[in-house]
Amino acid sequence: MFNCWGHASASRVKYGRHVVLDQNPRLAPWFEPDGWTWCLSNPQTRSLLCDVCDELIDWAGPGKYFHIGCDEAYSHATCERCRQADPVALFADHVNHLASHLRRRGRRAIMWGDALLEQGKWPAGFSATSSAEMPTHRAVDRLSRDIVIADWHYGVTQGEVPTLAHFRRLGFETLACPWNTAANIRTLSRAAQTSGSGLLMTTWHHLAQCIPLLAWTANCAWSADQAALRLAQCQGPLLRTATAACLRRLVPAEGRFERAGWNAFEQPPEAD
């Protein structure tokens, strides 16, 4: 995944090779004034994002999909040039251009769905960032149906997930996307099964925290009653030790704990 709309600031602060984006004022027009969102009216931005996607595809090797992000773009169309454009059309054209570019590379685009959901129209806990001031949900009719919608709702812990059916009625394939609580994972896994959607577990944390939840997600994905394995069985020294052993086979760690995929500041007590 590469964030091609919101979360643009990570391109400047996370990676040393991109520090020039923070220190070269000539590149400021690539971003909205607050730096959080890419400027979609700048053709250089579009060119850069396509180049980054190409580089990541070449690095990752064969595949069918590419996640373009596109969530939480709170400062969309706030620069002088973007304010002169239709913000909904600007967003839709940007996403369709990326999807078309990826299609030529043999990949289908995946995007987050929050910008396509209107605030106040969905139950509490659902991720919807389209608003009256910035009605990006109106772009949904303009988007290519080749795009897969990754429907993320980290605060939903029980009941139905009607947004999956909403997107599917509009002609999109969908992924239910939980995060970091057992109830959230269980609820969205069940919703994926009943709606015919895929399931995409998100891991916005260090590997050591995510491993138990990955095991729990796998259990929820294949277990008919989602009760064959309790979350407690996915935790503790046994799982961490087994995970470290697996990682050592996958990653040549040469005896270094952190090179096996762990965060050295969260070393479990049973580690050597």
Description:
With 272 residues, the protein is an alpha/beta fold. It has two domains: 10-204, Alpha-Beta Barrel (TIM Barrel); 205-272, no CATH class. Helices cover 37% and strands 7% of the residues. The protein is built from nine helices and five strands. Strands 1-2-3-4-5 form a five-stranded parallel β-sheet. α6 links the parallel β3 and β4. α3 runs parallel beside α5. The longest helix is centred in the N-terminal third of the chain and has 18 residues, at 43-60. The radius of gyration is 20 Å and the shape is globular. The relative contact order is 0.08. The model is unreliable at 264-272 (pLDDT under 50).
End-to-end Cα distance: 34 Å
* Helix content estimate: 25-40%
Write down the overall mean pLDDT: 85
Strand order of the largest sheet: 1-2-3-4-5
CATH superfamily grouping of the largest domain? Glycosidases
**Poorly predicted ranges:** 264-272
- Total number of β-strand segments? 5
Count of spatially separate domains: 2
Major sheet size, sense and barrel closure: 5 strands, parallel
CATH topology of the largest domain: TIM Barrel
Strand content: 5-15%
CATH class of the largest domain: Alpha Beta
**Number of H/I helices:** 9
The SSE order reads: HHHEHHEEHEHEHH
Shape: globular
**Radius of gyration based on Cα positions:** 20 Å
Protein structure class: alpha/beta
Q: What is the architecture of the largest domain at the second tier of CATH?
A: Alpha-Beta Barrel
